[in-house]
Amino acid sequence: MPDPSPEAQRWFSVLGDACERISDQARRMSPAERSVNLGRGAGGDITAGIDRMAEDEILAALRRLHHEDGRQMTLLSEELGVLEIGGGGNPLIVCDPIDGSQNAKRGGPGFATAIGIADGPTMSAVRLAMVHDHGTGECFTAERGVGVWLGGVRLTPPPQPARLRLLGVEGGGPAKLTAILEELTGQVSRVRSLGSLALSIVWVAMGRFDGLVGLGAARAVDVAAAQLIASELGCVVGLPTEADTGASPLDMGSRRRVVASATPELMSELVRAAAVV
């Protein structure tokens, strides 16, 4: 089975080092440093101290690639928005420095750095991906058409479930959660919420969840990396249907409902249920 291309290995090495530094610094930060309010980022959410620290590390890694390799690129990040590096242009680096900020600010383990690298302005153009789980230390990487790796070890698709025994939900309050559970009564055995959309999509890809419903609309930075990992492992990701995903724009303004599952059959059940919330 093929290894990542040399181009992919270069990106994974530099960005992986940055993610390790983020993990190390996060462990050293006090609760006050993690959660300090630094105003609103480009995505509209409050930028906390841990968000800014992580984005600074990613930005430093990208500038290192520019200085050492002469690479030009454009960063699309939840906090900064759009930033041209070395003149801009492609690739487009779609980054959520901390996905799961509420967990991270409170000292919980469920947060990740998610980075997608695209050759164009839509989700179908994402060709490389990294989702680094700062709680477990797991680092998932993917190259379009080549495969997925966990800590450098190639992954194979998990067994396909026949039903939704364990469903992930993200991004909604009690009213939306109640509505989706009523719609799926008798079809789902258990429900879990990690507090990180990127990790939840990856958990579907790994067979840890049988499906996922996003109860609120998500930005491209939350989805771009994880959807490539999922699709390379044979899973289905919809925004909200699979037919919508490829053309979904990589920008800060668009927000879309996310649905993911191990099979098209389970996806149909989840898309139908998600329409009620």
Structural notes for this entry:
- The protein starts with 5 loop residues before the first helix and ends with a helix.
- It has helices spanning 6-28, 31-35, 49-69, 101-105, 174-183, 197-206, 220-232, 242-245, 264-274; strands spanning 37-40, 46-48, 73-77, 81-85, 92-99, 112-118, 126-133, 139-143, 147-150, 153-154, 164-170, 188-192, 211-218, 236-238, 256-261.
- The longest helix is centred in the first third of the chain and has 23 residues, at 6-28.
- It is globular, with a radius of gyration of 18 Å.
- The model has no long low-confidence stretch (mean pLDDT 93).
- With 277 residues, the protein is of the alpha+beta class.
- It has two domains: 6-154, Fructose-1,6-Bisphosphatase, subunit A, domain 1 (Fructose-1,6-Bisphosphatase, Chain A, domain 1); 164-274, 3-Layer(aba) Sandwich (D-Maltodextrin-Binding Protein, domain 2).
What fraction strand? 25-35%
Which CATH architecture of the largest domain is right? 2-Layer Sandwich
Estimate percent helicity: 25-40%
Q: Tell how many strands the DSSP assignment holds.
A: 15
H/E element order: HHEEHEEEHEEEEEEHEHEHEHEH
Give the overall shape.
globular
Adjacency order of strands in the biggest sheet: 4-3-5-6-7-8-9-10
Tell me the domain tally.
Answer: 2
Radius of gyration: 18 Å
Q: Using the coordinates above, name the CATH class of the largest domain.
A: Alpha Beta
Q: What is the CATH homology-level superfamily of the largest domain? A: Fructose-1,6-Bisphosphatase, subunit A, domain 1
Q: What kind of sheet is the major sheet?
A: 8 strands, mixed
In angstroms, what separates the terminal alpha carbons?
A: 42 Å
> In the CATH scheme, what's the topology name of the largest domain?
Fructose-1,6-Bisphosphatase, Chain A, domain 1
What is the typical, i.e. mean, pLDDT?
A: 93
Tally of helical runs? 9
Protein structure class: alpha+beta
